[in-house]
Amino acid sequence: MQRYIEKVGTLIESFPYIREFYGKTIVIKYGGHAMEDERLKRSFATDMVLLKLVGINPVIVHGGGPQIGDLLKQVGKKSEFVAGMRVTDSETMDIVEMVLVGKVNKEIVHNINMVGGRAVGLSGKDGGLIIAQKLFHDDNGKKLDIGLVGSVNRVNPLVIEALDREKFIPVIAPIGYDETGATYNINADTAAGAIAEALRAEKLILLTDIEGVKIGGSLASTLTASEIPALIASNEISGGMIPKVNCCLDALRGVNKTHIIDGRVEHAVLLEIFTDAGIGTEIVN
């Protein structure tokens, strides 16, 4: 009996959060180990269905770097990176789009639908969702051309809003196009942040392969936007965490709260949203 009472206690703890977030949109960037481990893939899909069932609108933006790298290797093409960005010629772009839209996206959609959800796969090309522009790498003041890598120019959220109204879960591959029709590969964190801002989402959650942002070796549960520049300047925040934190800062122009959490933890999204303690690092205004 005590075990059942504890389960009821967990439900009671989640109640105020369900009420607070009912009818609101939460954008989740899905990537890293959570996309590769079968147990974690199922737990993530279950989390998304549960959110929808309690009246919260999850919007998923996914990556797929390892899968792209695997196919490039199979066709004998070497992966090349500049500052963490994949150098993308036209042949590589075809493979990126094939993997992200044709394989990874459909697997995520299938996983959600198999546990009772109603997911729909999209790319930034669908409904004019993501209009991109060419991104140049700044190499000590010089513009370095890294191919068909893009940044987000603007987001048209109408297709996402239509799916939300009809109780579907949008799953988005970060591919966009520019005014000339050229296709671009866009960083998934960047795309998720721009979509969250355009939707005026309640939360942006980035799933990563680390606990969150660590300051002085310890996990920082909360950081404010005003603290971030000094932490970057002092190298407390460094390496691959910098673009993730900057993504959160950009999203805060339209999003209430942003979170960087450990996607290696089973049901990480539910733990962040529905528990008093939460997990990972939240970055707020």
Which structural class matches the secondary elements?
A: alpha/beta
Number of helices: 9
Principal-axis shape: globular
Say how many strands there are: 16
The low-confidence runs, each spanning 5 or more residues with pLDDT under 50, are: none
β content, as a range? 25-35%
Radius of gyration: 19 Å
Helix content: 40-55%
Mean pLDDT: 91
Element pattern in H and E = HEHEHEEHEEEHEEEHEEEEHHEHE
Measured distance between first and last alpha carbons: 44 Å
Largest sheet: 8 strands, mixed
Spatial strand order of the main sheet: 5-8-2-1-11-15-16-14
Describe the structure.
By secondary structure, this protein is α/β, with parallel strands linked by helices. The protein is 40% helix and 28% strand. The chain has an eight-stranded mixed sheet with strand order 5-8-2-1-11-15-16-14, with helices on both faces. Strands 6-7-10-9 form a four-stranded mixed sheet. β6 and β7 form a beta hairpin. The longest helix is centred in the middle third of the chain and has 25 residues, at 90-114. The model has no long low-confidence stretch (mean pLDDT 91).
Give a short synopsis of this structure:
The chain has 285 residues and is an alpha/beta fold.
Describe the secondary structure blueprint for this structure.
Layout: H1 2-21, E1 25-30, H2 38-53, E2 57-62, H3 65-74, E3 81-82, E4 85-86, H4 90-114, E5 119-123, E6 130-139, E7 142-155, H5 158-165, E8 169-173, E9 175-177, E10 183-186, H6 188-199, E11 203-208, E12 214-215, E13 218-219, E14 222-224, H7 228-233, H8 241-251, E15 257-262, H9 268-274, E16 281-284
Parallel strand pairs: 1-2, 1-11, 2-8, 5-8, 7-10, 11-15, 14-16
Antiparallel strand pairs: 3-4, 6-7, 9-10, 12-13, 15-16
Helix pairs in contact: 2-4, 3-4, 6-8
